[in-house]
Task: structure prediction
Amino acid sequence: MRNWKISPKDSFVAAYIDCYWLLEKTADDGGPKSPKLNPDPAGHLILADSLQPYHYQSETFTNQGVGSHFILPHSKTFLMNHSQPFLVVGIKFHIGALYSLKLPSSDLETEKVLGIHSKELLSVNANRLITNSLWSADKCRDYLDKQLTPLVANAQKDSHSELVSKILSTFSNTSLSDIGSVLGCSQRTIERSFLRVTGFTLKQYDSMQKLERLLNYVHKLDASKLEWADIAFQFGFSDQPHLVRYLKSVIGSTPGEYAQLRDLAIDAYGNFE
Result:
């Protein structure tokens, strides 16, 4: 198994792109054949060979196809079919960047996977990129930086996206109810702009951030060291049953079931993304 993650070098591109990443699974690699992709408020453009199949399933849809595709921001867990070998390069956008870049269209969408041709969005030849995937991460980054420059040059910021940038910068050290007063805006204005730019409410975003921190923490621990009552307290849950209900609702497993299966993408491929 091969993977890497690297940030853009071009500062202009880096304002909209969080990172580039590569993931390869060969026939000899083990791990879950149907790992779960946990909720993510950022969008990912997946660049793949035009004949490479993909398959995603959630509570509300099943989407399958071949080639490049867009994983749009989503608050639900997606089940992926990774039973066959694959090689993909991903572009992870910053939260809210799709709004300013008008991607994948002028109407912000969430909870979807969309099949696309990479050249519909930028002048990247996905087949060439995959063929040359033995390039170093640095060379891939430089190539993608160059191809993305025209796209980010056409980004359109407005009062809503500017406000959301401020919200995100204060989020980690400010309670949800205090963000409006800290930024000098009404809470209604805060909520309206955040929903418009990201597709999610502040509460949904907060829940996704909490889940990401929790999963990153649990990923580092051996199953025998998982004290769920302590984890519940550490991550702000009122008690262990509250944590059980939360995990069941967002990843479809209780803590005990998850500890046994370890079937999330972070478990299958590590914390590279």
Observations:
- The chain has 13 helices and ten strands.
- The mean pLDDT is 89.
- The first helix runs from residue 11 to 14.
- The radius of gyration is 19 Å.
